[in-house]
Design goal:
This protein is mainly β. The chain has one domain: 5 Propeller (Tachylectin-2, Chain A). It contains no helices and 23 strands. Strands 11, 12, 13, 14, 15, 16, 17, 18, 19 and 20 form a 10-stranded mixed sheet that branches. Strands 1, 2, 21, 22 and 23 form a 5-stranded antiparallel sheet that branches. It has a 4-stranded antiparallel sheet with strand order 3-4-5-6, with no helix packed on it. Strand 7 (98-105) and strand 8 form a beta hairpin. It is globular, with a radius of gyration of 18 Å. The relative contact order is 0.18.
Length: 325
């Protein structure tokens, strides 16, 4: 990997395990995972979960994909389930569509859904109650795509584009050697022909883009380790944070595994490893993220949302910056 020394984040201090917030526990096998999320125009986080029954009081059916709203800020948060006949999917594990990325732009919620050979886009204009599905799919790579999140309703975005990352793999269940990056004008997210793909960084450090997916290149490489991930922008630090689950062979990351955090000055890098562990003191969850709503003004305190233990888990992270010690 081509890394640049990080000029900002030196290390992460995590809150103790007894301070981890655990919601949506369900009963027995009713816990829910994934929990991709975005900061919406009404001030709440909207989220989508997989293989579960959502927040308490749990719903009467186990969904492959369901929706919810998270109100408040840690430690005072509450999850509210949202039912959607046009958006919910059923089917356990790889047999059902599952959320892999969520974003609100100009009052419209967008969701990327994996396990759909390879993945598909849908959108909602009424905060997850009804969904419209795109008439096209990603058919090459993009097996587990995720959106880059900025502030509420996409406030604070660096430009007019929406960015999408994925392992360079056609399934969400196999790790890849690299991550890929697409971009699309924010007013054209539903138009497949409007998408461009990252090729490489030019000698001057600027990204090279192409309309032809066959010409794409990796935006990040780590052979055999590129798996499910999320990316969000920390406005206080002026850095992009990339959370990547690290699988342990034969283990389920909801119950055991590692985690890596990378940062960069731009959506295309260069990416620097800030913190990583092969086996964490809590499960990393198969998906984890830093919601932009729960970042302090100076960017130094954030909260990691993960599907650890098959729950909606929240753990505080404090960034120690270069030169502070």
């Amino acid at each position: 990997m081509d890394y640049a020394p990080s000029p900002v984040i030196k290390k992460i201090e995590w809150a103790p395990l007894d301070e981890v917030i655990r919601l949506a526990r369900g009963t027995g096998k009713d816990g829910s995972d994934i929990w991709v999320n975005t900061w919406a125009d009404d001030g709440h986080l909207y989220t989508a979960y997989g293989d579960g029954r959502g927040f308490d009081p749990i719903i009467d059916i186990k969904l492959s994909m369901g929706f919810a709203r998270v109100e408040g800020s840690p430690p005072d948060i509450k999850g509210v389930n949202i039912r959607s006949a046009s958006g919910e999917t059923v089917g356990h594990g790889p047999r059902g569509g599952k959320p892999s990325g969520m974003l609100m732009v100009d009052g419209i919620l967008y969701i990327l859904v994996r396990n759909m050979a390879n993945s598909i886009l849908a959108w909602s204009t009424d905060h997850s109650r009804t969904w419209t599905w795109a008439n096209w799919k990603f058919t090459q790579s993009f097996g587990c795509p995720t959106f880059l999140n900025y502030g509420p309703n996409y406030a604070g975005a660096r430009d007019n584009y929406v960015y999408i990352y994925s392992p360079d793999q056609e399934t969400a269940y196999d790790a890849a050697d690299g991550m890929i990056l697409a971009r699309v004008p924010k007013q054209s997210i539903a138009d497949r022909e409007a998408y461009e793909f990252f090729v490489r960084l030019a000698e001057d450090g600027r990204p090279v883009w192409t309309k032809d997916f066959a010409e794409h290149g990796p935006v990040f490489t780590l052979p055999g380790r590129c798996y499910r991930s999320t990316v969000s922008y920390n406005q206080g630090l002026g850095r992009y944070l990339w959370c990547q689950t690290r699988m342990l062979p034969g283990e389920d990351a909801r119950f055991k595994g590692g985690l890596a955090i990378y940062d960069a000055p731009e959506p295309w890098g260069p990416w620097t490893e800030v913190w990583s562990v092969e086996e964490w003191d809590m499960p990393p969850g198969e998906t984890n993220s830093f919601p932009t709503k729960w970042m302090s003004a100076d960017g130094k305190t954030c909260y990691l949302v993960s599907s650890s233990w098959d729950n909606f888990c929240v753990r505080q992270a404090k960034f120690i910056l270069t030169g502070e010690e």
